[in-house]
Amino acid sequence: MTETVGGSSKKTATQNGAGEKQRLKVERVYTTEGVHPYDEVTWERRDVVMTNWRDGSINFEQRGVEFPDFWSVNATNIVTSKYFRGAVGTPQREHSLRQLIDRVVKTYVEAGVKHGYFAAGKDAEIFEHELTWMLLHQVFSFNSPVWFNVGTSSPQQVSACFILAVDDTMESILNWYREEGLIFKGGSGAGLNLSRIRSSKELLSSGGTASGPVSFMRGADASAGTIKSGGATRRAAKMVVLDVDHPDVEEFIETKAREEDKVRALRDAGFDMDLGGKDIVSVQYQNANNSIRVSDEFMHAYENGGQFGLRARLTGEVIETVDAKQLFRKLAQAAWECADPGIQYDGTINDWHTTPESGRITASNPCSEYMHLDNSSCNLASLNLMKFLKDDGLFDAELFAKSVEFVITAMEISISFADFPTEPIADTTRKFRQLGIGYANLGALLMATGHAYDSEGGRALAASITSLMQAVAYKRSAELAGIVGPYEGYARNAEAHQRVIRKHAAANDLIRTYHANDAQVQKLATRVWQEGQIVGAKNGWRNAQASVLAPTGTIGLMMDCDTTGIEPDLALVKFKKLVGGGSMQIVNQTVPRALKALGYQEEQIEAIVEYIGEHGHVVDAPGLRQEHYEVFDCAMGERSIAPMGHVRMMAAVQPFISGAISKTVNMPESATVEDVEEIYYQGWKLGLKALAIYRDNCKVGQPLSAGKSAKSSADTKTPETVVEYRPVRKRLPKKRPSQTVSFTVGGAEGYLHAGSYPDDGLGEIFVKLGKQGSTLAGVMDAFSMSISVGLQYGIPLEFYVSKFQNLRFEPAGMTDDPDVRIATSVLDYLFRRLALDYLPFEKRAQLGIFTADERTAQVSQDYGSGSDVDLEGLRTSVDASPAPAVEEKKKSTADVKVGSSTELLELHLGTTADAPLCMTCGTKMRPAGSCYLCEGCGSTSGCS
Question: What EC number(s) would the UniProt record show (predicted)?
Answer without folding.
Answer: 1.17.4.1
